[in-house]
Amino acid sequence: MRYIGNKNKLIPFIRRTLERLGIEGATACDPFAGTAAVARFLKKHGYAVTSSDIMSFSFAFQWAYVVVDAPPRFAGLAEEVEDDGQRLDAVLRHLNRLRPETGFVYEHFCPEGHAGFEHDRRYFTPDNAAKIDSVRRRLHEWRTGGALNDGEYFVLLTALIEAADRVANTTGVYAAYVKSWQPNAERPLELRPPRMVTGTGRECRAYRRDAIDVVAALGPFDLLYLDPPYNTRQYAGYYHIPELIAEGWFAERPILRGKTGLPEDEEKRSDWSRRRRCEAAFRRLVEAADCRHILMSYNSEGIIPEDWIESVLRDRGATDSYRRLEHSYKRYRSDRDSDVRRYRGDRVTERLYYVRTV
Ligand SMILES: C[S@@+](CC[C@H](N)C(=O)[O-])C[C@H]1O[C@@H](n2cnc3c(N)ncnc32)[C@H](O)[C@@H]1O
To answer: Can the keyword Membrane be found in this entry's annotation (predicted)?
Structure first.
């Protein structure tokens, strides 16, 4: 899924860094998991991973990409879905063929459903909005009827959220929609199988909790990987539609407001995206962590000052174990890492900070 701070492209840099610094172990924690790209990599790399995030969509992704360790069997759908030996493909085919039925997404996030209001909320075409509604409703019925276990449910929910993101009429975040239909938005919604990591035998855990609670309560871990928000954009406001799809609207219909249909609740506002609070949050988290290695991704334009990051990590780390690595790349094309190197112009710089704890 398109996501601010998604580390998909930086996995090779993270892997090289683990090797270069000789970081090894059996357990890892990724408490700012987002799309679960790094948690998924860490599981593949050999760790039993504990992951978390405050976002509900992320909880679904963590289950699909990290916790689930065997291809889902969908035994509870044996009568409803014809099996050709590939259960997941068969269930996705069934969902992809559902008749569009208008509902919550249609009413709030497509121009036809939202007609007569000041803003047309042109996020999805009417067909795709109604299709998201019918798939989401079916998942809810299966889930509440006991036909799906946790892993099966979150794999299908992840497939739906990713499918919706591919046809969303946005430039990547949901804080605005594009005024005219873009080509991707006019394609039909299609659920595809998430790329799960199965057969590892590693027990992984997913949470929807504040990072500080997770690192303080669920350790010890060999490796703590931190990837907090680095700017003042609150994720809950930029990804409210994936979040609504993840949480559903069946028990209580959320009240949506304004041009983009934001829910009213403020509870997901993060200290890590507030200038006055992020430094203290960082120190609290590092001091609370029960782990051997701390590796942190942070963008060179992040709101926590670099000297603060260095001093907090040095305070917590063994003498001379602090490192800062940079990876610079032209957009879409990676080139190379170095210890301390500054790039300007069209280059993007991502940093990894490391310390071995005492
Ligand atoms: C830079 S993104 C992580 C990206 C992730 N590594 C990936 O590859 O997709 C930061 C994440 O931190 C989450 N977040 C913000 N505040 C948090 C908090 N207090 N506790 C846990 N997660 C939080 C956001 O929801 C967001 O998903």
So the answer is: no
